[in-house]
């Protein structure tokens, strides 16, 4: 990886028709979180250069939070932030990515609407010396090593573990028995598949929980409301618990249950959006797992930034990472809202950077090495497949790498 810093140039308005674009000039604030640091180290000062974030939509609370964290993080490094949405169309995202590259942008971090666009963006990045970081979606058994050094990092919340812990809490809230409905997300997406596997594994451990129905909620309130209404029509009102694959799905289920006059059904979601937290406060939703969307966006950006500023590709085990989150119920919802949501910005974004703080960088969340064989255990390996050589050679250092991440986590520590 060549040092791209000297080649960073500002975007000059080459934007896709119909795409939502937000730009913000960098500000001046302290490095304690929120805004650009007045004592920003020269090694990571973007000096107004453009950084692009590509994601699905702002008509979704999760991505609104992602956008907020992304902007705050970029501005903390004196960058000019550009956001572009694809409204669920992979081809649009690829076009937007190419246009940002053509405009000279050298740091791009994304979430994809599904895995299909990731490989093409990685190819474009590698051919054009763009530092590319990707969150959530990936084709099974594919990795950054398949595309070159410019695909800096693939990062995902540990969706299987998060969903398993969430649904077990829901089953316990149901008293370990009763009729259960599972509303999924978009079939085929990476987190949807892993969350469904987690629910299935939990069901095996709770024989008195009956899966009444499972329908796709498509990550949004309208589809999930319609799906839940159909389940109620077919199966009746004897429903004791609902697992929504994300927060909007959970809220859609709640809306359908309310319209049918069904009350006091524990519902869980996964995202950690402000509206969901307010429903938890009101007692309408039992709980939701937060993958800390603002943090996820900023962390993804910082991984790409460090690679660009240093000219060095991360160590092999740091190119695929899992992160943690918080399960929120009535017991901790007030603290969560006061710390992580809306105008609250608890993160010291610059402190996340290993380039800015070589000795005392801090991820400010749980981070660990993504285990490829565990991550993709549900999908058979392609014929003749072998784990990437660099990754396999580094596996003896897995425990030490995880320990390093853990030792550096000081701010916002949750034990």
Automatic annotation (TrEMBL):
Localisation per UniProt entry: Cell envelope
Keyword Nuclease set for record: no
CDD domains associated with the record: PBP1_ABC_sugar_binding-like (cd01536)
Residues of the signal peptide: 1-31
Source superkingdom: Bacteria
Keywords: Signal
Domain Periplasmic binding protein per the UniProt entry, residue ranges: 54-312
Record-linked PROSITE patterns: PROKAR_LIPOPROTEIN
Pfam families: Peripla_BP_4
Similarity remark: Belongs to the bacterial solute-binding protein 2 family.
Name the UniProt record assigns to this protein: Sugar ABC transporter substrate-binding protein
Species: Leucobacter rhizosphaerae
């Amino acid at each position: 990886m060549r040092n791209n810093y000297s080649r960073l140039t500002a975007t000059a308005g080459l934007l896709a028709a119909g795409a939502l674009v937000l730009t913000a000039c960098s500000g001046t604030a302290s490095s304690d979180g929120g805004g650009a640091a007045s004592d920003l180290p020269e090694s990571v000062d973007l000096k107004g250069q453009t950084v692009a974030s590509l994601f699905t939509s702002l008509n979704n609370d999760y991505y609104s939070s992602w956008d907020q964290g992304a902007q705050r993080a970029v501005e903390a490094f004196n960058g000019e932030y550009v956001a572009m949405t694809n409204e669920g169309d992979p081809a649009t995202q690829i076009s937007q990515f190419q246009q940002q590259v053509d405009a000279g942008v050298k740091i791009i971090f994304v979430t994809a609407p599904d895995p299909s666009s990731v490989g093409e963006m990685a190819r474009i990045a590698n051919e054009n010396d763009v530092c590319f970081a990707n969150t959530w979606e990936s084709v099974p058994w594919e990795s950054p090593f398949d595309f070159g050094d410019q695909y800096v990092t693939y990062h995902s919340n540990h969706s299987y573990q998060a969903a398993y812990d969430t649904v077990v809490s829901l089953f316990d809230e149901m008293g370990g028995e009763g009729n259960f409905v599972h509303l999924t997300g978009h079939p085929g997406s990476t987190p949807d598949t892993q969350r469904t596997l987690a629910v299935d594994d939990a069901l095996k451990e709770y024989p008195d929980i009956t899966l009444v129905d499972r329908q796709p909620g498509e990550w949004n309130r309208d589809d999930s409301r319609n799906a839940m209404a159909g389940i109620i029509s077919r199966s009746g009102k004897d429903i004791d618990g609902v697992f929504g694959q994300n927060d909007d799905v959970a809220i859609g289920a709640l809306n359908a249950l309310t319209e049918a006059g069904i009350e006091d059904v524990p519902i869980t979601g996964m995202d950690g959006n402000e509206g969901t937290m307010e429903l938890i406060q009101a007692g309408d939703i039992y709980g939701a797992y937060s993958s800390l969307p603002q943090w996820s966006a900023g962390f993804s950006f910082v991984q790409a930034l460090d690679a660009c500023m240093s000219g060095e590709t991360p160590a092999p085990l740091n190119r695929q990472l899992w992160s943690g989150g918080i399960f929120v119920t009535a017991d901790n919802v007030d603290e969560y809202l006061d710390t992580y949501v809306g105008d609250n910005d608890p993160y010291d974004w610059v402190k996340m950077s290993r380039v800015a703080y070589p000795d005392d960088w801090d991820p400010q969340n749980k981070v660990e090495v993504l285990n490829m064989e565990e991550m993709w255990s549900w999908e058979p390996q392609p014929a003749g497949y072998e784990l990437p050589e660099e990754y396999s050679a580094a596996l003896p250092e897995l425990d030490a790498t995880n320990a390093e991440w853990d030792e550096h986590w000081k701010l916002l520590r949750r034990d």
